[in-house]
Amino acid sequence: MTNKKAVAEKLLQVNAVRLSPEKPFTWASGWKSPIYCDNRKVLSFPYVREFIKSELSNVIFSEYPDAECLAGVATAGIAWGAMVADQLKLPYVYVRPKPKEHGLGNQIEGSYSTGQKVVVIEDLISTGKSSLQVVDVLRKAGMEVVAMVSIFNYGFGVAAEAFAKAEVPYISLSDYKTLITLALEKGTISAETEQILLEWSKAPAEWGI
């Protein structure tokens, strides 16, 4: 379906993903994390950008051929959604975190219709909360959410449960476990560090406390 290892290698290559168990990052949620993923960096590297765009397009073309529209998640998913929609020649919208406070007050930007089958493009899935809020917005607007496709997924159990409860299929080009395995193979991390990183993914909210 997707070459998870190849995607992980590209993300590491352009420093879109950084591993730092010794000096953890702090997420907006307050969680301490040994990894930070910023796929917006990929946009600055034309050949890697083209590769990721093609991988996203291939997944949607092969797995969700009935898609009638693509929806990017603001802000990081906007560029990817637009590029993939252009590649597949599909209509495109993007979804704001909240309605615009001036002008037309739109939360969904673009033209769409009730009953339209839409695939959501996300750059990153962590807990799934913000990603599924976008699904709710699209569904309330009368669109049929077919699936969500993301570049990277942390692989948290809480996200898998949330997507199952919301009845939203999803595919990620690569994930945390694949990335850690690749980093070990390349000698970027030791076997001891691998265990630390894997432990974090089991209980990220409690890690580093």
Please give a structural write-up.
The chain is of the alpha/beta class and 209 residues long. The chain has a single domain, classed as 3-Layer(aba) Sandwich (Rossmann fold), CATH 3.40.50.2020. It has seven helices and ten strands. Strand 5, helix 3 (76-88) and strand 6 (92-95) form a beta-alpha-beta unit. The model has no long low-confidence stretch (mean pLDDT 93).
User: How many helical elements?
Assistant: 7
Return the string of H and E elements: HEEEEHEHEEEHEHEHH
| Sheet having the most strands | 6 strands, mixed
Helix content: 40-55%
Topology summary:
Blueprint lengths: L3 H10 L3 E3 L5 E2 L5 E2 L1 E3 L8 H18 L5 E5 L2 H13 L3 E4 L12 E2 L7 E9 L3 H12 L3 E10 L3 H10 L3 E6 H10 L5 H12 L7
Short description:
With 209 residues, the chain is α/β, with parallel strands linked by helices.
What attributes characterize this protein structure?
single chain; 209 residues; alpha/beta; Rossmann fold; six-stranded mixed beta sheet; two-stranded antiparallel sheet; 7 helices; 22% strand
